[in-house]
Amino acid sequence: xxxxxDDDQVAIEFELELFNAGTAxxxxxxxxxxxxxxxxTQDADLAAFFQNAHGKGAALDVxxxxxxxxxxxxxxAPRASVQEYELAGRKTFVPVIAFNALYEWSGGKAQSSAAYxxxxxxxxxxxxxxxxxxxxxxxxxxxxxxLPSAVRT
Length: 153
Prior knowledge:
This protein has one helix spanning 42-51, and strands spanning 2-5, 9-19, 26-37, 58-63, 68-78, 85-87, 90-93, 95-105, 108-120, 130-131, 137-140, 142-152. It is mainly β and 153 residues long. The protein has a single domain, classed as Sandwich (Immunoglobulin-like), CATH 2.60.40. A hairpin with a 2-residue loop joins β6 (85-87) and β7 (90-93). It starts with a strand and ends with a strand.
């Protein structure tokens, strides 16, 4: 939805939609998110986040079969953890948001995880990077593209 950058932190506000594609209710659902950087290590960073799901975050009691639940939240990271790239002489960054959803169903416990590249929505295939060389600012008009890294157990 939007990204705020200042000298101390980066915060991205988003809307998350959870969908129960199963035939049984999903119960005790916990959704957690993390803000990462698009980088050479992003696949390893995503794998570590997916593998170390904590089950801490927004909690829902139940999602009935074939139903969707949406809610708004945000991820925040220290400004110092943002990896900057120089692009055409400008300082930019490309955030990645990763999600873990842990839940219980009649067959036991399960996990669904996904990650998205976030950037300025250019109305084309590629997203635009977010500029950091203008000081504190807010970005709106963001888009997200799913990354191939995902987990479903």
